[in-house]
Specification:
This protein is α/β, with parallel strands linked by helices. The protein is built from 24 helices and 17 strands.
């Protein structure tokens, strides 16, 4: 509590000063206005700097004028900020103020997507900056401009007028990048020859090395795609791992035909909308990869645009039917549930299908979708059993399933099994009464008595058991006790190999099948490796289209819809649906020995088996 008085005093002092702003000295006013700016109160800062210029300096203060421009810029008042910034540049001789004003003008142009103009502003101040930190900030902005694509005629014009050797080398590097982007090997080589490496700023050496490497072989035409991902803020790990997968795929090939411009959505829907509005105006952008968070996807789903948007993964159902420019690169959980049913009925001709599933929230929704698809295929499950809590003991559900399996046996099968049956004492599994121990010759033996736990029942063709995370240890250890010889169909949460391969589980679920988005997956849909693998394959898929040469948005969209199919290292893409924009293919995995092997790809019609 001892700190409350000083804090209260400071707050009181700030409020008091603010209330008497007009009566303060120039320096106190300026300090208070700067404090407002640092606190992010940009509208208040603008008002205070404007007041200083009007009442104290008669518009003759470059510091207040510059801070006024910055306050306006941070509010996206670009027209006002440009006007204020030009006043600093045109009416004051101090080079530092001019540099800061030109940097701001470049930032405004960059925010508006005017990359060539921003590049020229940054380049104009570069040679006069001596502070290394400040210089690095300018260089990072120049790199961003180069990556976003510049107008070649303006770069050529700037090179003609430029005298500074460092800037000339940088301009030639920019020319080389432009030539590489359009697949012009001759101009690429010509521009690289004009670079003096000892004059080129170190910040750009990585780009020089990459372009020199590309020069050594044929240079394909580059098509540009934007990548919009949460790289900071909420769920940034998903975006970062997916971006790494994209990057690793590009590094795998010397001559890529695509280049990615990366934008950080920060996990904010409003930020995503602003990015997409800017991208829609840039005709150099062939398409967009991302976003990946459902709330971000919803924010752009209703935007009317000819811009193809490739969604890596989403849990939103029906989105591609509403927006024909959205392409879902991964099958939805609903599609996976439907594919399981189709695989059972159409591919394996199973009829006696049982269901044991969690009865809560998303698990129940997906299981209901599986059951609905069975219904549409003419099959009613022979039994559906639910559980709600952690399945530490679901003997009641398993007993009921086994009892049903026994009832499905023919009389002949029952007689054969009863002949070889030994009485067991697993009271925890089945009730035993005196009729199990004594024969009554006056009555014909009936087969509806409690069966022995040692009789293996094969009457259920398949059992669908989608488990929740961390439930495998409970379901897996109880299932073998009930001697049901059937094909288990599980979900991705069965793929905890350390648990699955235990002797009390693994041998009893051999032949189990998993229908999944990916052929290689770790438990937990949000793990780093899963998103990395998706990014890796999606970059290869886009590359397979982009290799055909220069294309615009319309052609790219057409190529997507007509694509014959893609089978990557971890996933597959075969578009189907109303608008040919929904990936309907799934990976079918089978448990054999102690490993999961890929059986093939199932698209709802055929199981394309792995060679």
């Amino acid at each position: 509590m001892r700190f409350l008085k000083p804090i209260s005093f400071i707050l009181f002092l700030s409020v008091s000063l603010a209330d008497n702003f007009d009566s303060l000295s120039y320096y106190s006013k300026f300090e208070l206005a700067v404090q407002s700016y640092k606190e992010g109160r940009f509208r208040l800062a603008e008002s205070r700097f404007s007041s200083i210029l009007i009442h104290d300096k008669d518009y003759r203060d470059p510091a207040a004028q510059l801070m006024l421009a910055k306050s306006q810029y941070r509010q996206k008042k670009y027209t006002d900020a440009i006007r204020s910034g030009k006043s600093v540049i045109n009416y004051y001789e101090n080079k530092d103020y001019k540099n800061h004003a030109n940097l701001l003008m470049g930032d405004i142009a960059l925010s508006q997507g005017k990359y060539s103009k921003a590049y020229e502003k940054y380049l104009s101040i570069r040679s006069s900056i001596r502070d290394s930190i400040y210089l690095d900030q300018v260089d990072q902005r120049l790199i961003r401009c180069i990556a976003n694509g510049l107008k070649e005629d303006r770069i050529e014009g700037a090179l003609f007028k430029e005298k500074n050797p460092n800037n000339r080398s940088l301009l030639n590097l920019t020319r080389a990048y432009i030539a590489w982007g359009r697949g012009d090997a001759y101009d690429l080589s010509l521009a690289l020859n004009g670079i003096q490496k000892n004059k080129l700023p170190r910040s750009f050496h990585f780009l020089l090395n990459a372009l020199n490497h590309a020069k050594s072989s044929s240079v394909p035409v580059q098509n540009t795609l934007a990548v919009v991902l949460p790289l900071s803020g909420f769920e940034k790990e998903k975006g970062q791992s997916y971006l790494l997968g994209l990057s690793n795929q590009l590094e795998k090939e010397i001559n890529q035909s695509i280049r990615f411009l990366v934008f950080d959505s920060q996990g904010k829907s409003l930020k995503v909308m602003n990015i997409f509005q800017s991208l829609a105006r840039d005709r150099n952008i062939m398409g967009v990869v991302g976003p990946i968070l459902d709330q971000e996807i919803l924010s752009i789903a209703g935007l009317s645009s000819t811009l193809p948007i490739l969604i890596p993964q989403t849990g939103i159902v029906g989105l591609t039917k509403m927006s024909d420019n959205l392409f879902s690169l991964s099958p939805s959980n609903k599609q996976i549930a439907e594919r399981v049913a189709q695989l059972m009925v159409n591919e394996y001709d199973f009829e006696n299908i049982a269901v044991l599933s969690p009865g809560t929230e998303q698990s129940k929704i997906l299981t209901d979708q599986f059951i609905e698809e069975l219904f549409q295929l003419g099959i009613d499950p022979i039994t559906v059993k639910w559980y709600i809590e952690k399945p530490e003991n679901i003997s009641r559900q398993f007993k009921s399933i086994r009892k049903l399996a026994w009832s499905l046996m023919s009389n002949e099968e029952v007689s054969q099994d009863m002949t070889a049956m030994e009485i067991d004492s697993l009271d925890a599994l089945f009730d035993v009464d005196v009729t199990d121990f004594f024969d009554f010759p006056e009555e014909e033996e009936t087969m509806d008595k409690k069966d022995s736990a040692k009789v293996i029942l094969e009457t259920i063709h398949a059992i669908y058991m989608p488990v929740r995370k961390e439930e495998l240890i409970y379901i897996g250890t109880q299932f073998p006790l009930y001697n049901l010889k059937t094909t288990v169909f599980g979900n991705e949460n069965w793929l905890d190999m350390d648990i699955l391969n235990q002797k009390i589980i693994g041998p009893h679920v051999q032949g189990m099948q998993i229908v999944s988005q990916r052929s290689s997956i770790k438990v937990g849909a949000d793990t780093f490796s899963n998103y990395h693998d998706l990014g890796f394959d999606h970059a290869a898929f886009i590359q397979s289209i982009s290799r055909s040469g220069r294309m615009n948005r319309h052609l790219f969209m057409k190529q997507l819809r007509n694509h014959p199919g893609f089978d990557g290292e971890f996933s597959s893409i075969y578009f189907s649906g109303k608008n040919q924009n929904e990936n309907g293919s799934v990976q079918v995995l089978e448990y054999e020995g102690t490993h999961m092997k890929k059986m093939g790809i199932y698209n709802g019609q055929n199981l394309l088996k792995t060679q």
